[in-house]
């Protein structure tokens, strides 16, 4: 798999938003004032527009709670300092762990490494003991998944010991969008939706790699760890050099490129999927995920993204199979229902009526 250098989109523009319409925000999070969480009896959590939103408007910008690079070539990695998360070339300038825990752990410079010391100390011994064996035995995908879970725990551990009080609200949006580990904890696991064989596999990974108290502080029980792993699998976003969901669904649409990492954006995990999305998403140069209106959105409309590359899965059957296999649900979005109805009509027309 080859990586491509991403084209960095503009940051959430303050100047293009009228001051009266801007919700006070910080470097961690931005949300448009017309975007709010809602509940549906069938879908559960979702995000809805409470007023009209113009095409091209930045709706939400979220930082990752944890991030891991995709390692399949000599392309740039990702700075392990979560507040930086810039791409780092694998050359002599990349700063590595003093304990040589894993070659994929890099920082931009010694300052980033020093800033990240508390978080990285949590994962360092675990990586040194388990990383290479896990990767060789379980494969790259399972290694990245388990490492991502460890990094989620590492960020939580750093949060617990940072002395920062997150309980007190500082911005109006915090009434609807939680901070820190609370936002991760709110993510859905959908444990009952996964096949038993998959759950059994994850239980083994938890037992073999996430229950070693000699290198991993026991923040969670085995049952809680399994739920966290399910949440990671269900809510993680891939990082791609081009936007997901921005291209028209036709034969000339450009794919989003190869993944260079994956991350959990717990507040953005409230976006539901549609094969006809009205919101696109793309990471900026520091792995902040930027969600933008793909078209004009009307008041009361649900804001939805696509969970996969629509240029890869174009027809109804391919999309339905992909959502079922990868996300454990049958897509019933507007596009799928329309195409399914059209196929049913064509099937009825082919029946030998009137003979």
From TrEMBL:
**UniProt-listed PANTHER family:** HISTONE-LYSINE N-METHYLTRANSFERASE SMYD, SET DOMAIN-CONTAINING PROTEIN
- Write the protein's name: SET domain-containing protein
What InterPro entries does its record include?
A: H3K4_H4K5_MeTrfase, SET_dom, SET_dom_sf
Q: Which residues form the SET domain?
A: 33-308
